[in-house]
Amino acid sequence: MTALTGSAAAPPEAPQPVGHARPGTRASWRERLALDGWGGLTLPLIAYLLVVFVVPLAIIFSRSFTDPTLGLDNYRAFFGSPVYLNVLVNTFVTALLVTGVTLLIGYPYAYLMTLASPFWRSVLLVVVLVPFWTSLLVRSFALVLLLGNTGVINQTLLALGVIDEPLALMRNFVGVTIGMVQVLLPFLVLPLYASMRAIDLRLVQAAEGLGARPAYAFWRIFVPLTIPGVAAGLLLVFIQSLGFYITPALLGGPGNIMLGELIVQQVSAVLRWGFAAALAAILLVTTMLLLATVNRFVDLRRHLGVDR
Amino acid sequence: MTARRLTRGALIGSALLTATFLLLPVMVIIPMSFSDSSMLQFPPQQWSLRWYENFFTSPTWIESAWVSLRVALLVTVSSVVLGTLAALGLVRGRLPFRSLLTALVLAPIIVPYVIIGLAVYAVSLQLGLTETTVGFVAVHTALAVPYVAINVAAALFGFDRRLELAAMNLGAGPVTTFFRITLPLIAPSMLAGALFAFVISWDEVVTSIFLSGPQMTTLPVRMWSGVRVSVDPTVAAISSLLLLMTLTMFTVAGVARLVRRRRARPSVQEEA
């Protein structure tokens, strides 16, 4: 679970693995580039990812500057048009809202998991894991069946006489938000629960023993200790929201297109490759900047191991 | 005291709502799939199996299910091999640019699938790899491999290397030691990684949308076109089947864990 760089044993400054590290001596270039038999085992995957992942990405980015003409035209087209800028704004606003709502309902849930008895804890865990392991497409489709005008929720409310006409729960901002929160909630709850579980609850008890009111002890002791887990979970949800395609495409409407949809649309419908490539570059650069920023404050790699 | 009880009540209440929110969509789809109407209804007015029948008797649906299965199995094999080797190298090896290479191995998790799909599609078009098994397997393997590497690396970090030393001391060569000691010890994590890899490939829609076409389509992509254009109730039936698969997997995994825990010494703590 604690990912590859749970190599807390090998901090980034000292790339040598444990056992090879010779503190005090500065490695020469020859030593630094040395590769042993075990290290060589990494090469097939590295070569594979270079061919299947890195090179295609590089090609598509170069196309954002060359297709159809050499230069920054694609980027100018994007940043010069209110329509496209709107998509960017909409993408960020949606992602922020989704992340916020996810935290709001995920935090108490994860907290209850830490308090619950072993039996209820596994029940709560399974409740999160079942949707987590269920196909994203199936869940998004199920939400269409729930939220549509003739969907379960509207039909039920109409039958009960609570409302007179169907609520617009889909093909709009509301639908996208509900859908994405439903899909992404496990990505917050799981790392958050993992980090909460590692907290020594006696610290809170100690604070209470010293006279702190429970709420005060909770906010001053427990919550600050969960911040790394929260940050990791939020980042995971936020980054995924930015690049989401399936759920917004199914539950959103024409008025709130997100970047991912625009990319697919530009390639499949209008064949504007260069423009789609520029959109992809903008999305990727944003994602990477975010990641780098948060990484300065939180040891992300420790927390990113849980997701899927 | 009452304040605490109140907080606890509020917590439980909100968790109940959250649990409903998480489970309701998955639970509602099953009864709806048994509806007789070509409009999906809840609760169904008339029950029937026609959408299940539609799936199992339709050559196109079955064909795409086979495509998905074939791709997912190949992806499982290739990503377990590549991921395990890489994990061994990253954890044990002497390796230049370790953190950079680690970042590269993990990168397919972070980069949005739409971008990966777009990039791979562009190259596949040039190479004639769209609508081919090779194309699908190549992309899905890149997406799945980080999860195998993460799982195996975790096992290797918790690994007691004295076991290997003991084997070598007793006369086993490096190869024997690897296959008799190392491999069996990391096998459960490889299996978990394999499961991840299979599910990732089996479920993957976004990159597959790019690579699919009339000649070759995976099941999720066909489902996608089945709900995109007009809601085809067959998708509800397939979704229920997929859900059943997930739940079966859970039950099997749960039972296996129970059995293993029974067998293991009580001191052996297992990760939840």
Question: What does this protein structure show overall?
Answer:
The complex is a heterodimer of chains A (308) and B (272). Chain A has helices at residues 29-32, 37-40, 43-66, 73-80, 82-115, 118-133, 136-147, 152-160, 173-197, 202-209, 214-242, 246-251, 259-268, 273-297, 300-303. The longest helix of chain A has 34 residues, at 82-115. Chain A contains 15 helices and no strands. Chain A has 308 residues and is an all-alpha fold. By secondary structure, chain B is mostly helical. Chain B has helices at 2-33, 50-57, 59-92, 98-110, 113-127, 133-157, 162-169, 174-203, 206-211, 219-228, 234-263. Chain B starts with a helix and ends in a 9-residue tail after the last helix. Residues 267-272 of chain B have low confidence and may be disordered. Chains A and B meet through helix 2, helix 3, helix 5, helix 6 and helix 7 of A and helix 1, helix 3, helix 4, helix 5 and helix 6 of B.
